[in-house]
Specification:
Layout (H helix, E strand, L loop, with lengths): L8 E2 L1 E7 L4 H11 L7 E10 L4 E10 L2 H4 L3 H7 L4 E7 L15 E5 L2 E8 L5 H10 L11 H9 L5 H9 L7 E6 L3 E5 L8 E5 L2 E5 L3 H4 L4 E5 L4 E5 L1 H6 L3 E4 L9 E2 L1 H6 L5 E2 L2 E2 H15 L11 E5 L5 H13 L4 E3 L3 E3 L15 H6 L2 E3 L1 H4 L3 E6 L6 H12 L4 E6 L12 E2 L7 H4 L4 H8 L3 E4 L2 H7 L8 E2 L1 H4 L18
Parallel strand pairs: 15-26, 18-19, 18-22, 22-23, 23-25
Antiparallel strand pairs: 1-24, 2-5, 2-11, 3-4, 3-5, 6-7, 7-8, 8-9, 9-13, 10-11, 10-12, 13-14, 16-17, 20-21
Helix pairs in contact: 5-6, 10-11
């Protein structure tokens, strides 16, 4: 399946809950709150215990589509997905074909130690080497997803204890991962030693929950407790419900310096979430302020204001920060809603022909003409990937009568591929590379009066570092924290 990508895309959302009588419904709401992290498919697995048979049963439902579409039949949650523990997943594919239903997570197997299901956010960078090794040993794969490797490594582990089998498997994989793993009697949360992808722990009454973002806690009235630490494996079981403490294990080897994906703050996460222990809203406002420091826009005279608009929705709060700092620095500015986005255009709407790209943009965006006509307009966006959508948005704003258009971006130029869970086009398709990083060329291609990107230095000054955090900025700098020599393109995960 060919994807039209003009924004970075994240790998997925994970959710898990242990010890709740309505585990499936809680998972449904948790996935609904994280719909922005993946819109291709959704799934839930629950665990129940049959006392008469003295046996655990796993129940699963998953399909292509948004959460509401996949679980539109209410009996799925009330009658099929029974049990007091569950994990769920929203998918955006970066590893494995997106049109293969077998790749939809959670993945579920039954092996010698019972049932086990898994949800994954991230990308495993050594998956090809492990997959080839397992195939040579006779392993038969059912999916083209890198996540399935974990299940096979668990099943082949010589460890007797199931938790130790999981740890043994995780010690063999490299790259980015945040896992929610469900066994007959436990919920396991695990995060790679670099901490690329977020994974938070919360509590809903006496139950424990895990999620990619804390906005999933708010919808079910769960309280944020902490983050799963980089390289940590947390185990929730019956003892946890009694003592209030999860068992914590460390993955082997030295504890790596964290390399959180900085795009979680720039674009992926909802502003009402806490990610990597910090408010996303607070960080985005700081990004906007930093952008105004580096790339201010001045009004033509003191009687006029610069009109500042955002590209909905991820740059909303950064725009507020930009306006605040631009005003503080003496550049009279006014925040306005100049672009309206339709939230009712799904992935399945009738696609126009390739040469009707403008219609495609207009199905999602429209302008408020009286806000823009005759004005000096600043557009705030979080990133520019190909630039094709940006060109069309600029044209819409120009057609609405804007006098000048100045494009400002709360991230540096994207120049390099990501191997840790983000999906970008091929490097040669990126506007920064097509224009050789030349701002004048980018300005001309976008059709604006000026363009300004937040510098990498200022970006790093704007994100939290007070608790020893560090960040992966490879898509901007090309400096990858680990060896990715065996990965040559964004398609290396497709089979």
């Amino acid at each position: 399946m060919t994807k039209f990508i003009d924004k970075p895309q994240d790998h997925c959302a994970v959710f898990g809950i242990y010890g709740h009588p309505d585990a499936a419904k809680m998972t449904y709401y948790g996935l609904l709150a994280q719909q922005h992290r993946g819109q291709e498919a959704s799934g839930i697995v629950t665990s129940s215990f049959n006392a008469k048979l003295n046996k655990h049963h796993f129940h699963i439902h998953k399909d292509f589509g948004l959460v509401n579409d996949v679980f539109k039949d209410e009996t799925i949650l009330s009658e099929l997905l029974v049990g007091d523990s569950a994990i769920g997943h929203n998918r955006y594919s970066t590893a494995g074909a997106s049109d293969n239903k077998l790749n939809i997570q959670p993945l579920l197997v039954n092996y010698r130690n019972g049932n086990i299901a898994i949800s994954h956010n991230g990308n495993l960078t050594n998956f090809r080497k492990l997959r080839n090794k397992l195939q040579e040993e006779g392993t038969i794969f059912q999916t083209t997803s890198d996540t399935e490797i974990i299940l096979h490594l668990i099943a082949k582990s010589k460890q007797d204890d199931q938790v130790r089998q999981v740890i043994d498997a995780l010690n063999q994989v490299e790259g980015a991962f945040s896992f929610a793993i469900l066994t007959n009697e436990k919920l396991i949360a695990a995060r790679d030693p670099y901490g690329w992808r977020p994974l938070a722990v919360g509590k809903a009454g006496s139950s424990y929950v895990i999620a990619s973002e804390t906005c999933a806690f708010d919808i079910i009235d769960a309280e944020y407790v902490c983050d799963v630490e980089p390289g940590e494996v947390l185990v929730f079981d019956k003892d946890t419900l009694k003592t209030g403490e999860a068992k914590s294990f460390r993955l082997s080897g030295k504890r790596e310096k964290p390399n959180h994906c900085i795009f979680e703050y720039i674009y992926f996460s909802r502003p009402d979430s806490r990610v990597f222990g910090e408010s996303v809203d607070r960080v985005r406002r700081k990004l906007g302020k930093s952008l105004a420091e580096e790339h201010p826009v001045k009004p033509d005279n003191q009687d006029e204001s610069v009109i500042v608009i955002n590209v909905p929705d991820s740059s909303n709060t950064a725009t507020l920060g930009y306006v605040s700092r631009n005003n503080k620095n003496g550049n009279k500015s006014k925040y306005e809603i100049g672009l309206i986005r339709s939230h009712y255009v799904g992935r399945t709407f009738i696609q126009p022909q390739q040469d009707l790209r403008e219609i495609k943009v207009k199905t999602k965006f429209n302008t408020v003409r009286n806000v823009l006509k005759g004005k000096k307009v600043v557009i705030i966006d979080d990133s520019i990937v190909r630039g094709t959508t940006s060109v069309q948005l600029v044209k819409l704003i120009r057609d609405a009568g804007a006098k000048e258009i100045h494009f400002r971006v709360t991230s540096p130029m994207i120049k390099y591929p990501c191997h840790f869970g983000m999906d970008f086009p091929n490097p040669e398709e990126l506007i920064a590379n097509r224009c050789s990083g030349d701002l004048e060329m980018i300005k001309n291609e976008l059709g604006v009066d000026s363009v300004g990107y937040l510098s990498l230095e200022k970006l790093l000054d704007s994100v939290p570092v007070d608790k020893g955090q560090s960040y992966c900025t490879a898509c901007f700098s090309g400096q990858f924290p680990i060896n990715i020599a065996d990965l040559s393109s964004k398609d290396e995960h497709e089979f």
